[in-house]
Specification:
The complex is a heterodimer.
Chain A lengths: L1 H21 L3 H21 L3 H26 L15 H22 L1 H7 L3 H5 L6 H13 L1 H28 L1 H6 L3
Helix pairs in contact in A: 1-2, 2-3
Chain B lengths: L2 H4 L6 H36 L15 H10 L11 H19 L15 E4 L2 E4 L8 H22 L3 H32 L4 H6 L8 H4 L3 H13 L11 H4 L9 H26 L8 E3 L2 E3 L9 H23 L5 H32 L3 H33 L4
Antiparallel strand pairs in B: 1-2, 3-4
The chains are: A mainly alpha, B mainly alpha.
Chain lengths: ~190, ~400
């Protein structure tokens, strides 16, 4: 059963990932990305990480890709992009190198930690010896708010800075020409 | 935990049969409830507007929806020239399927007396009167409703037409912004119930005083009600299909069966959202029981295993009526009013209330003086509220000086 679920989810992820790269239409690429994210969510469920699966769908599929689509629609770039023109020359060779490097790192990590993966593969609940309906959330909360509380708070500060920066960037051109627009009778 | 895991662990055929039966029943009940809702809304609104409403097909016109559905079946299925073929065909299903999925996690009945936790015995198996009780329960609801955005968004975009695109951009902005308020008000319920599973949430509301509408102090319920109405794109938040501005909204280019799917999804969502409100705040299938001195009522209607279902349907009807009532009375909001309400009022209010409830929880856990904690929390919240108010005032003044439209 586990193998069956894994094969299906992995196929979903791979088809989605290839779709993101191959589809030249940005909206289709974004839809392929959703397929990949769902596949990952299915894998999380198969590992008994129900909470992570739900958050994966809520945050990534439900908010981030919606924002992608939103930007695509608002900017009106809903036409296929010409792949022949490369705006930044080093971009493509660099992408190949980084991709291969990332693949190597992930493969090395899997090979090195094979033994612990076998234990964890039976599910998070079993690995930590706690089970039950809400054990996922309890474990995650304990970890997040005790062991990693500093990183958590720093991340929230980072997000606030990002929001403030966005507001500032969005408002800057306005203040320069404020008198012009009001004089123009808008 | 998921039924699929058990399939290989030597389950008897009758257990598999129960699951299949439940799937069929839930699906059929959902469809019938939706058809009923369409008729109910038309009939009640016509009553409120001094009209007769549907009255030809069947008694009281109750088969009107069926007749409309058959009519839509036989209409021509149009595909606009500039449409994106694949996405155009996919979008109705993306709207329809999530609407049904939410229905599967709502407890539709069951026996909650004497600590039975809502289980009933069916063919010698103890089971719950809900299709699935996943460990993430309520989060699944949020996940599914966030997927529902895609149906509307892609429908508008793939039509290759301007007004549907405007409608769908509005819809997605609205749904994404109100989802935060929706989630935060649900978080208050989870905090009080101490669990995410819908069955657990219903079980924890064992008496009238412990219904979450009272236990969380009404405010999360009001926020949830407003946010849910916005999430459903129903009046007064139906900017998505504002006929006067957008021709017909995101589904302008759709016809025949595809349009029927959108229409069904919309009403199905209303029914499921009412079900969610009943489950989260009003005890779901728990009977209303009170004990006021001489007047004693245990909530048992002597209907056996249907007792919970009858209570659930009765509560559901109240909220369906309220939604129709909203539609008949409230005028549509302007777009900037909608965004102001969501971002500047609902989200801060739900966050503040969540903090208050969390502080109370900590106080009871640590045996602190409850009143001191309450007063300090309220003082802090008031201060934050005033700061927020000052901030919005200043920004409004700045924008006015800069000559912006809103």
């Amino acid at each position: 059963m586990q193998l069956f679920v894994f094969v299906c989810a992995a196929a979903m992820i791979l088809v989605g990932a290839i779709g993101v790269i191959v589809r030249s239409h940005p909206v289709h690429a974004a839809l392929s990305l959703i397929l990949t994210l769902f596949g990952v969510a299915v894998l999380f469920v198969a590992q008994d990480a129900h909470f992570l699966a739900a958050v994966q769908v809520v945050v990534y599929a439900g908010a981030i890709v919606v924002l992608f689509l939103f930007v695509i629609m608002l900017l009106g770039v809903d036409k296929a992009e010409a792949l022949r023109i490369d705006p930044v020359k080093v971009q493509r060779p660099l992408a190949v190198i980084v991709g291969l490097g990332l693949f190597g790192l992930v493969a090395a990590a899997i090979v090195r930690s094979r033994d612990s993966l076998v234990v964890r593969g039976r599910g998070i609940d079993i690995a930590s010896g706690e089970a039950g309906h809400d054990s996922n959330i309890r474990q995650l909360a304990n970890d997040l708010f005790s062991n990693h509380v500093f990183a958590f708070e720093v991340t929230s500060v980072l997000l606030v800075i990002a929001v403030v920066g966005t507001v500032l960037l969005a408002r800057r051109p306005r203040s320069g020409s404020a008198s012009d627009t009001s004089a123009g009778g808008k | 935990m998921f039924a699929i895991d058990n399939l290989l662990e030597g389950l008897t055929p009758s257990a598999v049969l129960i699951v299949l039966l439940k799937v069929v029943i839930v699906f059929v009940v959902g469809l019938v409830a939706t058809m009923f809702m369409v008729w109910f809304e038309r009939k009640i609104i016509s009553g409120m507007q001094n009209r007769i409403g549907p009255n030809k097909a069947g008694p009281f016109g109750i088969l009107q929806t069926l007749a409309d559905g058959i009519k839509l079946f036989f209409k021509e299925d149009l595909l606009p020239d500039r449409a994106d073929r694949f996405v155009f065909r996919l979008a109705p299903f993306l709207a329809f399927v999530p609407a049904f999925l939410v229905w599967s996690i709502i407890p539709l009945g069951g026996d909650f007396s004497n600590g039975k936790n809502g289980s009933v015995t069916m063919f010698g198996h103890r089971t719950f009167v809900q299709l699935a009780d996943p460990p993430v329960g309520v989060l699944l609801l949020l996940a599914i409703s966030s997927i529902g955005v895609y149906g509307i968004m892609l429908a508008g975009w793939s039509s290759g037409s301007k007004y549907p695109l405007l409608g769908s951009v509005r819809a997605s902005a609205q749904m994404v912004s109100y989802e935060a308020a929706l989630g935060l008000s649900l978080a208050a319920v989870m905090l009080v119930a101490g669990t995410l599973s819908t069955n657990g949430i219903v079980t924890s509301q064992s008496s009238l005083g412990r219904w979450h509408v009272i236990a969380t102090g009404v405010v999360p319920f009001i926020i949830f009600m407003i946010a849910a109405t916005a999430e459903l794109n129903r009046p007064p938040f139906d900017l998505v299909e504002a006929e006067q501005e957008l021709v017909g909204g995101f589904n302008t280019e759709y016809s025949s069966l595809r349009f029927a799917l959108f229409y069904l999804a919309e009403f199905m969502n209303t029914v499921t959202m009412s079900g969610v409100i009943v489950t989260m705040f009003f005890g779901g299938p728990q009977p209303v029981k009170f004990n006021l001195g001489a007047v004693h009522f245990s909530g048992d209607l002597h209907l056996g295993f249907m007792n919970g279902t009858v209570w659930f349907v009765a509560k559901l009807l109240v909220f369906l009526y309220i939604y129709v009532w909203f539609r008949a009375t409230l005028p549509r909001l302007r777009y900037d009013q909608l965004m102001n309400l969501g971002w500047k009022l609902l989200i801060p209010a739900s966050l503040g209330w969540f903090m208050l409830l969390a502080a109370q929880r900590v106080a009871t856990d640590n045996d602190w003086n409850k009143w001191t904690v309450n007063i300090i929390t309220i003082a802090v919240l008031l201060l934050c509220g005033l700061l927020l108010l000052a901030a919005t005032r200043v920004s409004a003044k700045n924008r006015e000086r800069e000559g912006a439209m809103f």
